[in-house]
Amino acid sequence: VQQANYHLDMLLSDERLSLTSNDFNFEWVDLQKLIMTILKQNSAIFINHQLVPQLEDLNGVKVLTDRKWLRFCIFQLLSNAIKYSPTGATIFFKWKNNSLQIIDQGIGIASDDLPRIYDNGFSGKNGHQTTKSTGMGLYLVKKITDQLNFKLEIKSTPGQGTQAILYFPGNNVQKD
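^ thats the sequence. predicted structure below, dont judge the formating
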């Protein structure tokens, strides 16, 4: 049921984004609180996979954006980190230079797949190893970040892990 809800949410999100009048509601979002909420909602998955979340330098960070769509982006990037991480691994959430970094210790992405990871439906070599890959997640995150005026970058080393980075414009960041 959880997997079906996840896929349905992705399809509905794609439809909502394609509408010409998006329902963006910009506000100051406490990044640490948002991430903690997402982690609590997914605590069973972390326990099942014996994964450990670690937050660094997020205290007091606020970003000006749409809470619902930022939540979708973080959840999707976290979902990928979970999907491709080995049992017992740590998933890091770090704040550095106006960017949120989600870093896993998973299988990584093949270098020849990296140029196509934002293409709709592209699941790459890793996606062919699992039935859980739709090839829509990074496509949607990229589409959202483009519309919300922040940037997504994915860095990866096969066998070592992946780093998903959300860069926020300086005037959209507050740090207490």
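Strands lie at 26-30, 52-56, 61-66, 90-96, 99-103, 151-157, 161-167, 173-175.
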